[in-house]
Write a structure and sequence with these properties.
Number of strands: 7
Distance between the termini: 30 Å
Order of helices and strands: HHEEHHHEHEEEHHE
Strand content: 15-25%
Shape: elongated
Structural class: alpha/beta
Number of helices: 8
Largest sheet: 7 strands, mixed
Number of domains: 1
Radius of gyration: 19 Å
């Protein structure tokens, strides 16, 4: 049991950590200064994907390493896209359309820089840097719905003034399918080159586009691209496997809770590698969040 709880805690760390900074929405005064400015787009290495199953959770540290290894293999072999690309493209497009900025081509080389001054130093030729960094993504089993899984994704977005290194705006989004009415099985997530997993992680990326557009940048819904219909709730049409509660013998409910974020979709600022789950306002859409 101790090994299981340790593995759960490690998986939780890949998805959420304590927030270090306050949420910084884009202020009206700063928004007014964006017109005719240039914005550079950073790219980061893809974070490890944690594939949390009951069997691996029971092996503690070794199990946690196995989860990450299995998750990365799944993502690599099936070419699962980092949702950060969806946020980078859509938030930068909205900044261009609404505030008149010129958006530079995304970086070709990924960076590990995360602090505002470090990010500013990467692009002295630009006025601002829009930094989109995935903090963590994973799937995990339900301890009381044996054989079914939820998927989670977290991301941090910063807008940095390159001349001063000031964090003009900063926020994070956590999105997951933990409360979806149609939790899939592992086989369903993996089938057909992880087609369903790709759809769900893409959906979570779009969820964060909408959440951050509203809460971080104060864009109106009509000013941002709508979620494509196929990603509004990709779990809606699946045949959910019959779930039992036998998983409770493999992992106690309180341990599983430690591995899952508390909010459906939360916005909060971060200075760490994986955005935190907030206790504040959460949003949902058709049960997919």
């Amino acid at each position: 049991m101790k090994k299981t709880m340790l593995a759960c805690a490690l998986m939780a760390a890949t998805f959420s950590v304590a927030a270090k900074d306050k949420l910084i929405p884009l202020a009206d005064a700063d928004a007014a200064l964006l017109k005719d400015k240039t914005v550079a787009l950073t790219v980061h290495p893809r974070p490890s994907f944690s594939a949390m199953t009951a069997g691996k959770a029971s092996f503690g540290l070794l199990g946690a390493a196995a989860m990450i290894s299995a998750g990365n293999k799944l993502v690599d072999e099936n070419h699962v896209q980092d949702p950060a690309e969806i946020l980078r493209a859509n938030l930068s497009a909205a900044l261009h359309d609404i505030h008149g900025v010129t958006v530079l081509a995304p970086d070709t080389a990924p960076t590990k820089a995360s602090k505002p001054k470090e990010l500013a130093a990467l692009h002295p030729e630009a006025d601002y840097v829009l930094d989109v960094r995935s903090g963590g993504w994973m799937y995990a089993y339900y301890p009381t719905k044996w054989g079914t899984y939820w998927v989670g994704y977290s991301v941090q977005v910063q807008l940095v003034d390159t001349k001063t290194g000031r964090q003009v705006s900063n926020a994070a989004c956590n999105a997951h399918t933990r409360d979806n009415a149609n939790p899939p099985s592992l086989d369903q997530l993996h089938a057909d080159q992880a087609k369903l997993l790709k759809a769900v992680t893409t959906s979570l990326g779009w969820t964060c586009v909408q959440t951050l557009a509203k809460d971080q940048f104060h864009f109106a819904p009509e000013q941002v691209a709508a979620i494509p219909a196929e990603y509004v709730n990709p779990l809606a049409g699946i045949q959910t496997p019959v779930a039992t509660d036998t998983a409770s013998a493999a992992m106690p409910t309180d341990a599983a809770a430690a591995a899952a974020p508390a909010a459906d979709t939360a916005v909060k600022s971060e200075g760490a590698s994986a955005p935190a789950t907030a206790d504040g306002a959460a949003t949902g859409n058709d049960g997919t969040r």
